[in-house]
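haha ok so turns out i had the wrong file open the whole time. this is the CORRECT one, sorry everyone. sequence first:
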Amino acid sequence: MVEDVQVPPEEEVPPEDNEAPIPPALQRQRSRALSITSNLTDSHYAVLPHGVTIDDWTEEERAMLDDHVRHLLHSKREKFKRGWRGFKQYVKRPLGLFVTIYATLITLFGLAWVLFLIGWIYVGEKQLYVINVIDNVLVALFAIVGDGLAPFRVVDTYHMIFIARYHFLTWKLRRKRKLPELQDHNDLPTRQFVSMEVDRASVIRDLEASWEERDESPVLNEKQQERFEHHSMKFAKSHTYYRPHETRTHFAFPVKLLITVTILLDFHSMFQITLGGVTWGISYHHRPAALTATILSCSIACNIAAGITISIGDRMTRKKRIIEQEFRQGLTEEAIGHVKKKVRKEKEKAAMEELAADEKEKEKEKDKSRSRSK
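then structure:
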């Protein structure tokens, strides 16, 4: 009978110290740090601003940079700080300060109106009179925007009519002539005309629009094309959300949403004018509360709907990757300053510690020499 001879397994040789395996997390961190470029990728968080290089940085400093950008992206505290800095920059502008004060006044008087109306604040027989005073103040505040912007909105509607007309005419002519579909049917082809307006160049720079000849040729005649460009530039100068042509960060704004926003803002002004006439034309003793509430509700609804439509159009036309890249570049620029400051402090601290160590060494040598002399 032959016995099975079991051969003992070979003992695993432990890896040497200099060949210790690198943890996967550290490997990903190192590869991520070494591949930081000016392009947005999924392998790292940091995106270098154009013209900035970190070739002389150590591997540890690059990993520190990428980690700090990750912290800036995900930290709620950092998001709040960025929002607060943006708000302070906005308030420093005259328009931003006006809008902030205007919104604060509407909020405070609106809150007071509600508290008096539901009886949480009661002043006896003067209750209705105080409510009427607050109501008049609120209507006056609303009239600043609703009534004050009404003439400008009429002009904007005039420009919008021409913009919409030439958009629909272009689509109709292209279908009639069996031309290929536009790459973006909201971005009509343009021609290089000599401008008769001195401010058009600045408007174009503000919009960052490219007026180079495109592969798609215009179907409008020269006069129609000139009118379209004139009215689109005028409207874009009045409303920053409207972009007649593709920019570096956005596509052209949809013309159908443009029509919707313009009509909603026109109705907002009409309701506000009606509200002012009802409030100031009828005594509060005889004025139906339901009439005022209905007009006010319709006015606010139109204004909110216009804002939502603008937001939808902005999200539809936004080039998310480019905007995200620019956002990351801004965070990376901030993180570079943070890392440089941190590295400088560490070097200063190391230099101070080295200097202190040298001083201690000198003191020890002096003590030894004194003891020997004794």
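Residues 1-20, 193-214 have pLDDT under 50 and may be disordered.
again sry for the mixup
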